[in-house]
UniProtKB/TrEMBL annotation:
Known cofactor(s): Mg(2+); Mn(2+)
Limits of the 1-deoxy-D-xylulose 5-phosphate reductoisomerase C-terminal domain: 157-240
Uppermost EC category: oxidoreductase
Name of the featured protein: 1-deoxy-D-xylulose 5-phosphate reductoisomerase
Domain DXP reductoisomerase C-terminal positions: 272-388
Tagged with keyword Zinc: no
UniProt keyword list: Isomerase, Isoprene biosynthesis, Magnesium, Manganese, Metal-binding, NADP, Oxidoreductase
Residues bound to NADPH: 26-28, 137, 139, 216
Organism: Lancefieldella rimae (strain ATCC 49626 / DSM 7090 / CCUG 31168 / NBRC 15546 / VPI D140H-11A)
Residues where Mn(2+) binds: 161, 163, 232
Record's catalysed reaction(s): 2-C-methyl-D-erythritol 4-phosphate + NADP(+) = 1-deoxy-D-xylulose 5-phosphate + NADPH + H(+)
Source organism phylogeny: Bacteria, Bacillati, Actinomycetota, Coriobacteriia, Coriobacteriales
UniProt binding sites for 1-deoxy-D-xylulose 5-phosphate: 138, 162-163, 187, 210, 223, 228-229, 232
Length: 397
């Protein structure tokens, strides 16, 4: 099932739209709260979840007055900060509690900003409960797209990633059968133009210094390796029913063109605008309407020239590895994603070098045979196996 149909959303868009924000302490979660702050007449925050950021959860609960909140990390049960939650706010713990928020009767829309593969469970819960799913958790589609996409009804799943929101917007009024290719734009990250010899010596601080976007640490490292763009290729493949080899990455340093769609007649539609995640977040919450913007518009007459270039897949091998996994399909993307999450974290902790991320991901992919995707339980087992192998690679150095 494609996410794009020129029909009204399946789940009713009541006003105010009652929203659950999963991962509310992260970059996307905080910017979602800001969108809600600007549209109190249209959006009502009724549930919030964090992994372990109790201080951020308490602050958001006092401002937005949700009825339910959840903390995924069970070890936070005795955090004294949680005693400061509003008296009428129900508190639960554990990953299952986070998923339960997605199924609450008084939730219309779930914003899934959980980081990594863990987001698949909340996404599955939201879709099976018939909720609108505004999701920024690309890993869930990469890993479990074969299972999640058949659950999607027209207008039910709206992407929050800036690139996929751009593609979604370009397809309004169009037929998927008329799409020739998708141009997935990419800033190139902080190491654009560098050779592998230079990459061998970069630091974590260097890799976190993204040139245009303010993001969390995990996605910032993925952007530096170009793995993030590889994940987005697989995501677009599932969302828009487009073959892997018809999705092309285009380096666009100015981050003004957020992606483009080329049609069979040679016409190209692009979505342009400021480098501000609040725009795609708001569009996911307002669709099919558009609301007054919260970001400063681009002054096109004074902006720098817009340039494009091809990515260097030999230097940034993670992009090629992701495409390889996407072509293989089945459980291969699950293996690739799990290995990358372990290697990404190990680099951030100073345990391995930057180029070791690619080496570890490649090694794990080679060691685990591809299977057809059958269930979330199966994916969970394969994910655990891949993570264990990746951890072994990290320890070996």
């Amino acid at each position: 099932m494609s996410i794009f149909e020129n029909t009204a959303p399946h789940a009713s868009r009541r006003r105010p739209l009652r929203v659950a924000i999963l991962g509310c302490s992260g970059s996307v979660g905080q910017q979602t709260l800001d969108v809600c702050r600007h549209h109190t007449d249209r959006l009502q925050v009724v549930a919030l979840a964090v992994h372990s950021s109790c201080a951020a959860l308490v602050a958001a609960a006092h401002e937005f007055h949700p009825t339910c909140v959840a903390v995924a990390d069970e070890s936070c049960r005795h955090d004294a900060l949680l005693a400061n939650l509003p008296a009428n706010c129900k508190l639960t713990f554990g990953s299952e509690a986070v998923c339960a928020l997605a199924e609450l009767e008084d939730v219309d829309c779930v914003v899934n900003a959980v980081v990594g593969e863990a987001g698949i469970y909340a996404g599955y819960a939201a879709l099976t409960a018939g909720k609108i799913l505004a999701y920024a958790n690309k890993e869930s589609i990469v890993v479990g797209g074969d299972l999640l996409m058949p659950l999607v009804r027209p207008g039910q799943l709206i992407p929050v990633d800036s690139e996929h929101s751009a593609i979604f917007q370009c397809l309004v009024g169009e037929k998927l059968s008329d799409v020739s290719k998708i141009w997935l734009t990419c800033s190139g990250g902080p190491f654009f133009g560098k050779c592998r010899e230079e990459l061998a010596h970069v630091t974590v601080a260097d890799a976190l210094a993204h040139p245009t976007w303010s993001m969390g640490a995990k996605i910032s490292i993925d952007s530096a390796t170009l793995m993030n763009k590889g994940l987005e290729i697989l995501e677009a493949h599932h969302l828009f029913e487009t073959p892997i080899d018809d999705i092309h990455v285009l380096i666009h340093r100015q981050s003004r063109i957020h992606s483009m769609v080329e049609f069979v007649d040679g016409s190209v539609k692009g979505q342009l605008g400021p480098s501000d995640m609040r725009i795609p977040i708001q569009y996911a919450l307002s669709y099919p309407e558009r609301w007054q913007g919260v970001a400063q518009p681009v002054l096109w007459g004074t902006t720098n020239p817009l340039t494009c270039a091809e990515p260097d897949e030999e230097t940034f091998g993670c992009l090629a590895l992701a495409k390889q996994a996407g072509r293989a399909g089945g459980t291969a993307p699950c293996v690739m994603n799990a290995a990358n999450e372990i290697a990404n974290e190990a680099f951030r902790l100073g345990k391995i070098g930057f180029l070791d991320i690619e080496r570890i991901v490649s090694s794990v992919i080679e060691k685990i045979p591809r299977e057809s995707t059958e269930s979330i339980a199966q994916l969970s087992e394969i994910d655990a196996h891949a993570r264990a192998l990746a951890q072994t690679c990290v320890l070996k150095g």
